[in-house]
Design goal:
Blueprint lengths: L1 E4 L4 E4 L5 H14 L2 E2 L6 H11 L9 H4 L6 E2 L1 H12 L5 H10 L10 E2 H4 L4 H14 L6 E2 L1 E5 L7 H14 L3 H5 L4 E6 L4 E5 L5 H4 L19 E8 L5 E2 L2 E3 L9 H5 L9 H4 L5 E3 L6 E5 L1 E3 L5 E4 L5 E3 L2 E3 L2 E9 L11 H9 L5
Antiparallel strand pairs: 1-2, 2-14, 3-7, 4-5, 6-9, 7-8, 8-19, 9-17, 10-14, 10-19, 11-18, 12-13, 12-17, 15-16
Amino acid sequence: MITKALRPRLFEIPDFLTEDECEHIIAMAESSGMQASGLHMDEISRKSQNQVHGRSKAESNVFYKWDKNKDGVITAEDVKKFAVDTRYLYLEDQDIVEMFKELNITEIDDGKITEEEFETLNTDSLNEYLKNLRENHPRFRDRFSEQTWLQQGRVADPIMRKIKSRVQRLTKLSKRIIDGSEQLQVVHYNVNGHYHAHFDGQSKKQFGHLECCHFVADGKTECRLCRYITILYYLNDVEEGGETAFPVADSENYTHSDFQMRKDGDFFNLSKFCHNATSLVAPKRGKAVMWYNHHVDEHGWLGERDDHSLHGGCDIIKGEKWVANNWITAPEVDSYHRTSLYALADHILAGLEV
C-alpha cells in the first residue's frame, strides 16, 4: 500500500486484482447490460449546481457582458469567455461554429458582431443553448459514462466472492460491515468520458435528518450516502487520460464553502482542471485506490464526512476506461445494531431466512 495523502487517507495498491479477474469483471458487466450513469443530487448539490448554470438571463442581453475587452465587437473568443463567465463552459472553436449554425445566427459570419448587429441578435436563444450544453451535452455535463451493478454475495460466482474476501482483509473491517455494503459498481468511459469532482459520502451536519441509504427500503425516500470507504479498481490500461483526481487532498487552507463558490475558478471541472489537483492517480490494470470518505467518531462508528475526499475522474483522451467501485457502507453510533438492506437482500437471494 502506497500512501498518497493523509487528508483524506488515500492509498494506492498495485496489482490488487489479477488480469484474469479484471477481464472477468468486464465480461460480466458487458453481459449484464450497461446503463447511462446518473448523479445522486441532494439539495446542497443542487444549490451548488445553480451557482454554475443559474446566472441571470439578462446578462446575455447586455453587449458589454460579451465584449469584455471593450473593443466594440464580439468575436468567437469573446463568446468563449462569456460561456466560461456565465456557465463555466469551456468551448472550442468548432463548438462556436456549431452553435451559431444550429441557431441560424449569421451576424458572426464575418468573424465579429458589432454593437449595431447585437441589437437584433437572438441572445435569448444563445443563452438557452449554452444552458442546455452545460446540463445535457455528454462532453459538458458533470458525468459521462455507463454503468452496471454486480453481485458479490452468496449467489455470486467464486471470483467475485474471492475479491470480496480480499476487501475484508484489506480494510480489516468485520464481515458484517463488508457483507452489508453495496454491490460492485462497474463503470465504462469512452473518449471524453469523465466524472467531475464529487463526494461519495454525505455530511451528517447537513443531512442529519436523513437515514443512511443502506437502511432505506423503498428506493424513493430521500436518504444520505454513508459510504465510509471507497475502493476503486482499474480494470484496463488507458491509452491517455482517465486519472482519478483529488483536487484538495492534503490542502492546508481548504474551505469547502469557498471551493463550492468557485471563487478562483471551477476546479470541480476535471475536463479542464484535472492537473490542478493536488493528488492524481494514473489508471493501470489491476491497481486499486482506497480512500476514506468519513472520519470515525469518538465511539468508533461512522463520523463526519472528510471534505478533503472530493474526487473525480478526468477525461479519457484516447482509448477507454473500465473501473469498478466497492463502496463500504457503515453505520453510525445510533444505528450500529441495524442490519443493512444489502445484507438482507443477499440472504433472500440465497434462500435463507432473514
